[in-house]
């Protein structure tokens, strides 16, 4: 990835992060979209697995800092999700919106599973309900929003012709 | 090539393991260490993001509470619109309670139900009847004064004639008892306001604008001392032997909603002290007027005495006979009870003085001869 592509990817990443802290609380949905996961996934497919793991770790700490009781849970989840996304980027690197949507959905769902299990705040039926109902819903919303943003920001995210 | 790939994979795994270990270490931190770390991040490089989130939360709260705020504002507006009428009603009820506490007994509270016709303000239906003790010709009063009289009685309700009715009459007088007359509605046609007129006032009795007129108690229907109205002005009528005054009524018929009906036994006992304050205010006003007249008269007498002294000095200096001293003495010395004499007077100054004496005489007569059974305490008019 050349410098221009890296700058564009960085701008897209920052836009997603800002959206996470503005649009998400403004909408306040019960099954919210997760722009941090989207930012992580979009960044992970462009970098090496080690870099993706560091990015995931940093994003996880950022999100955890606003919920100190779960400090570390988000970092673990995002590190794994970022590393996995970067490791599997060959599978999902196709320019296919449906594959990307599934990629986002899977990334968010895996993140939620790792996060809620690591957080250990929700137990029993509530945990099952969260992981099998609200997390898939949130993952679906995240995937839909991710695809929409991918479509909107395609000029910014596409690699420049060599 | 294969070694490089294996090396990269090994680095990736090492970094991954390190990140996971660090994350787990952060997860395993005790609360006393976890909070400072999170707080430090929030206060440093995450501060802009925290600020963005706060504003977004506030925006969401504003959006969510917009409907509730609008509903609250609507309710507040509606409440403020009702507040005026509620205050007026509250004031009216307070006055009614005050009247009730002064009457103490012998009254029946009732609601006045107005008719719906155009200018149908001459009669009202009262929500109390013979079962409550109402009888025909029972006086109907409000805290401000006279309202009307009951003319028909049913078991549960009654019909009252307001003072605006053409057939309504009440014997009235000034509180000091110097002027008596019959108060009735001032019928000036459909466009006229609700005013009273006091007819048949003796020609010698003058009433100043603002004087309070109360019921006299003559006739047996109305007890003495209920405010009827205040004098606005004298009006000209064809009756040359008596004066007629226009009165502003004490009670506006359109504002009558809660009234009190006096029972016959209460009427027989009188209403001494119920409107005492009103009478005292009127008496105080009269005292101010009288004292003003006395001061003006004293000044006029002093001026006349000085003029007379100058004339006497001039006469002595010129050797002519001085003017008779009787006039001077008469002019200077105030007479306690001057008598109107038909003898002609020689100068305009004397005529004015005589007129002032006449005014003073009326005042003196009011002070010195209090009317019997007035609700005023002795000495109020002095």
Q: What is the strand arrangement across the widest sheet of chain B?
A: 1-2-5-4-3-12
Q: How far apart are the first and last residues' alpha carbons of chain A, in Å?
A: 10 Å
Oligomeric assembly:
heterodimer
| Overall pLDDT metric of chain B | 74
Instruction: Report the portion of residues of chain B in β strands.
Output: 15-25%
Radius of gyration of chain A: 15 Å
Coarse shape of chain A: globular
Structural class of chain B: alpha+beta
How many beta-strand segments of chain A? 0
* Spans where pLDDT lies below 50 across 5 or more residues of chain A: none
Roughly how many Å is the radius of gyration of chain B? 42 Å
N→C terminal distance of chain B = 128 Å
What does the average pLDDT of chain A come to? 84
Largest chain-chain contact? A-B, 35 and 34 residues
Low-confidence parts of chain B, pLDDT < 50 over ≥5 residues? Answer: 322-382
Largest sheet of chain B: 6 strands, antiparallel, barrel
The helix-strand sequence of chain B is: HHHEEEEEEEEEEEEHHHH
| Shape, per Cα inertia axes of chain B | elongated
Topology pattern of chain A, helix = H, strand = E: HHHHHHHH
Considering DSSP H and I runs of 4 or more, what fraction of the residues of chain B is helical? 40-55%
Question: How much helix is in the residues of chain A?
Answer: over 70%
Q: Mind explaining what this structure looks like?
A:
The complex is a heterodimer of chains A (162) and B (382). Chain A contains 8 helices and no strands. By secondary structure, chain A is an all-alpha fold. The longest helix of chain A is centred in the C-terminal third of the chain and has 29 residues, at 124-152. Chain A is globular, with a radius of gyration of 15 Å. The mean pLDDT of chain A is 84. Chain B has 382 residues and is α+β, with helices and mostly antiparallel strands. Chain B is built from 7 helices and 12 strands. Chain B has helices at 2-28, 31-43, 47-103, 264-269, 276-318, 325-332, 348-368, and strands at 107-114, 123-126, 139-142, 145-153, 158-162, 170-173, 180-185, 196-202, 212-215, 227-235, 242-249, 258-262. A 6-stranded antiparallel β-barrel of chain B has the order 1-2-5-4-3-12. In chain B, a hairpin with a 4-residue loop joins strand 4 (145-153) and strand 5. The relative contact order of chain B is 0.09. Mean pLDDT of chain B is 74; it is low at 322-382. The chains are: A mainly alpha (162), B alpha+beta (382). The interface between A and B is medium-sized, with 35 and 34 residues.
């Amino acid at each position: 990835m050349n410098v221009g592509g890296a700058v564009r990817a960085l701008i897209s990443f920052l836009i997603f992060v800002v959206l996470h802290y503005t649009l998400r609380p403004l909408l306040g949905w019960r099954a919210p979209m997760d722009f941090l996961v989207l930012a992580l996934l979009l960044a992970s497919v462009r970098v090496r697995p080690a870099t993706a793991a560091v990015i995931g770790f940093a994003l996880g700490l950022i999100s955890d800092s606003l919920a100190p009781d779960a400090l570390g849970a988000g970092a673990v989840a995002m590190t794994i999700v970022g590393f996995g996304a970067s490791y599997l980027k060959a599978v999902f690197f196709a320019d296919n919106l449906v594959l990307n949507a599934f990629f986002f959905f899977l990334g968010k769902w895996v993140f939620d599973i790792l996060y809620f299990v690591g957080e250990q705040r929700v137990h029993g039926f509530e945990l099952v309900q969260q992981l099998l109902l609200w997390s898939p819903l949130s993952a679906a919303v995240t995937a839909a929003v991710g695809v929409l943003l991918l479509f909107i920001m395609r000029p910014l995210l596409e690699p420049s012709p060599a | 090539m294969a070694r490089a790939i294996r090396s990269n994979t090994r680095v990736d795994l090492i970094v991954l393991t390190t990140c996971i270990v660090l994350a787990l270490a952060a997860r395993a931190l005790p609360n006393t260490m976890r909070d400072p770390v999170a707080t430090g991040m929030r206060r440093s490089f995450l501060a802009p993001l925290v600020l963005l989130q706060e504003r977004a939360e506030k925006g969401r709260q504003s959006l969510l509470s917009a409907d509730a705020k609008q509903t609250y504002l609507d309710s507040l507006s509606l409440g403020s619109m009702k507040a005026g009428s509620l205050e007026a009603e509250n004031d009216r009820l307070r006055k009614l309670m005050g009247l009730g506490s002064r009457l103490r007994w012998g009254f029946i509270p009732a609601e006045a139900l107005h008719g719906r016709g155009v200018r149908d303000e001459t009669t009202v239906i009262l929500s109390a009847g013979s079962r409550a003790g109402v009888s025909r010709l029972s006086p109907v009063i409000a805290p401000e004064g006279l309202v009307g009289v009951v003319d028909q009685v049913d078991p549960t309700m009654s019909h009252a004639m307001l003072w605006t009715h053409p057939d309504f009459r009440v014997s009235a007088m000034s509180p000091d008892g110097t002027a008596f007359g019959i108060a009735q509605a001032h019928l000036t046609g459909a466009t006229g306001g609700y005013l009273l007129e006091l007819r048949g006032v003796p020609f010698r009795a003058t009433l100043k604008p603002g004087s309070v007129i109360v019921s006299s108690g003559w006739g047996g229907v109305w007890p003495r001392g209920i405010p009827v109205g205040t004098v606005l002005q004298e009006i000209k009528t064809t009756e040359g032997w008596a004066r007629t005054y226009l009165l502003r009524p004490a009670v506006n018929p359109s504002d009558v909603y809660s009234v009190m009906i006096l029972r016959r036994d209460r009427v027989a006992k009188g209403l001494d002290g119920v409107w005492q304050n009103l009478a005292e205010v009127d008496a105080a006003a009269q005292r101010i007027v009288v004292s003003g007249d006395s001061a003006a008269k004293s000044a006029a007498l002093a001026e006349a005495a000085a003029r007379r002294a100058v004339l006497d000095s001039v006469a002595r200096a010129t050797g002519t006979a001085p003017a008779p001293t009787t006039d001077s003495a008469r002019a200077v010395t105030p007479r306690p009870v001057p008598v109107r004499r038909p003898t002609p007077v020689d100068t305009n100054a004397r005529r004015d003085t005589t007129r002032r004496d006449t005014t003073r005489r009326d005042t003196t007569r009011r002070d010195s001869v209090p009317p019997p059974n007035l609700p005023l305490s002795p000495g109020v008019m002095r």
